[in-house]
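User: Predict the structure for this protein chain, please.
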Amino acid sequence: MNLYEYEAKAIFAENGITVPPSVRVTKPEELSKIHFGYPLTLKCQVLSGGRGKAGGIKFPKNLQEGQTIARDLMQLTIGGSKTESLLVEPMVSIARELYLGVTLDRERGCPIFIGSAEGGIEIESSDNVVTLPIPYPYHPYVARDLAKRLGLTGSLLLKVADMATKLYKVFEKYDLDLAEINPLVVTQGEDVLALDGKIIVNDDALGRQKTFAGWQAKHLSDLTDRECRARLMGLNLVELDGSIGILCNGAGLTMATMDMVKKFGGQPANFLDVGGGSDQEKTLFALEIVNENPQVKVILLNILGGITACDEVAGALVDFMKKNPDVNLVVRLRGNNQDIAEKMLAESGLKLIPDLQSAVQEAIARSKNLVAAGR
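Assistant: Here is the predicted structure, written as structure tokens:
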């Protein structure tokens, strides 16, 4: 789950990371109540990157100009993300910009610091990026080593190292995939503060992170209605342009099934991974939400029963077909309790196809026949 800048900065501030004073506004008229002095900084609050290059940050010189600019900024969509609000901050006197981030390096199997003596836009193209593994248990010497590698010395080295330590603590405390400050600025008086902030919370941690309880729906605003409802149910749905609805358990199996559909001339209508522990209720919801899509002519279900028992899936299929007897459904179901599932499906008139290639070709043939018939 991506957070807006104002949310990330609130978390930073709660954990000792210095940020500029700021006010979030949703209407241009609210600027008249803000007394930071001009010029001001107005920043679009979006969930995508590239905001600066897209014109999402402006510096009005007076109230009248600020309200005009704010009105325009509120209409912006950047990288597919609509502007949710504006963050208003005073202009900061910047002596230099740095970059500081913490993320998980899956190859190394540990979190890492990412730092650069340059900050701002397109940091990923910089040749001066330093990465440093973070051992467990953590010790502040790692942050001091990072600051030293960035070429910092004296009191500035200690200030940046302290900021890095605090950023890591935020990363660890909130189960994050990414905690980033870009830019981390040094003012003319050598104060160090987070001028911008980005936080991505690990979706699997949302259940135990009470700080973010109830936040998810607000951060799915750029998804379709069906994608949003699926995500809130714990399903990973991405809608596409084809006519064959895909429903599998596991991202790898879902991608492999989609690839096979494409290979034999079909077009997937969606990617839908119900997860490894999907029960009857969740599977039924997944079937219904795929069927809601008017583009879907045939639903292809490919489940490998491991943690998910095949009879749980079969129960959902039977319930679904009772409600939707005219739906074209192709089922490939293998694994745990497969024999029980096969009997359940046979009694309801559903045929189980054990071979994936045969199931895919059956789904494609049905889809093409329906399209040809204008149905």
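The two ends are 38 Å apart (CA to CA).
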